[in-house]
Amino acid sequence: MGGCEGMGMKHHHGCKKIFAIILAIVLIFVFVKVCYNNDNKDIQKDTIVVSGKGELTVKPDIANVSFSVMEENIDVSKATDAVNTKIAKIVENLKTNGIDEKDIKTTGYNIYPRYNYINTQTYPYNGTQVLAGYDVTQSITIKIRDLANAGKIVTDLGTLGVTDMSGLNFTNDKYDDLVKEARDQAIVQARSEAKKLAKSLGVKLVKIVGYSEGSTPIYYDRMMSAAPTAMGKSAEAVLPTGENKITSNVSITYEIR
Questions:
Q1: What domains sit in the chain, N to C, each tagged with a CATH number?
Q2: Which residues have CB under 8 Å from 51's CB, separation 6+?
Q3: Which of 104, 175, 88 is closest to 143 using CA atoms?
Q4: Residue 26 CA to chain centroid, in angstroms?
Q5: What is the residue-wise DSSP string for 143-185?
Q6: Cα–Cα–Cα angle for 15, 21, 23, nearest 5°?
Q7: What is the dihedral sign for C-alpha 85, 90, 96, 100?
Q8: Which alpha helices (DSSP H) does 73-219 contain, by range?
Q9: What kind and span of H or E run contains 26?
């Protein structure tokens, strides 16, 4: 007889035990293989990637201007007082020109000691630093909402002791809302492209499994830098505002079947 046939009871039970162990090993192997295949199915899903673009062209409705006032003096308190006096006149002028106090913001206030280096006339000819004075600088950024008045405001700043002016740019007060609008346009375009591509391929869209986006503002930046004396002699600044272009690009990955 073959196998466990013809053996005693003890040997018969031993064969059953061995058979059960082999069966358990086989079942474990099958279970692991099924789980592995399921995991691979999740990883190796069929997908398509589509992109969309949204673009808005709008006229700016605000202007941002940055400027600084700087004074120097051997007495730091005198330099500070001089800066405070000029800033007070500038703020008064800005308010007269329709700028709200909430749109006038200090962005920097710095006090730097300045030294002169003097060489000694005797051996070992070591130099020494001598305090020459203090430079006190206050930087301010303003927001101009009445663009028709921007030229006058900029010109007036040049006559009120402004040390330098820079960063004049025309933008939009509700910029974030415009970015969202451009993004929505891009998403609509991407979804439309996905439907067309799925139809051409003969597949069905299941769900979105990936998404990325990027928004790019494009506007004309008018940088200004001039000495107050030169600006004081000039006529009122002419500042064309141009247009702002806001572009949003999105990429969407769809699972298909």
A1: 61-172 (3.30.70.2970)
A2: 190, 193, 249, 250, 251, 252
A3: 104
A4: 57
A5: EES-GGGHHHHHHHHHTTT-SEEEEEEEE-TTHHHHHHHHHHH
A6: 100
A7: negative
A8: 76-96, 150-158, 175-201
A9: helix 9-43
C-alpha Rg value of the chain to the nearest Å: 38
Residue that has been written with the tokens 């025309």 in this structure: 170
- The residues, any chain, with a CB within 8 Å of residue 82's CB and separated by 6 or more, are 71, 73, 136
Per residue of the chain (257 residues), what is the pLDDT tens digit?
A: 445 555 555 555 666 777 777 766 766 766 666 565 555 555 568 999 999 999 999 999 999 999 999 999 999 999 999 999 999 999 999 999 999 999 999 999 999 999 988 876 666 667 788 899 999 999 999 999 999 999 999 999 999 989 999 888 999 999 999 999 999 999 999 999 999 999 999 999 999 999 999 866 655 444 443 344 444 445 788 999 999 999 999 999 999 99
167 vs 19, 66, 189, 194, 216, CA distance in Å? 84, 6, 35, 42, 19
104-119 and 164-171 beta bridge pairing: unpaired
pTM higher than the cut 0.85: no
> Other CB atoms closer than 10 Å to residue 56's CB: what's the count?
16
Spatial CB neighbours of 89, under 8 Å, sequence gap ≥ 6: 160, 161
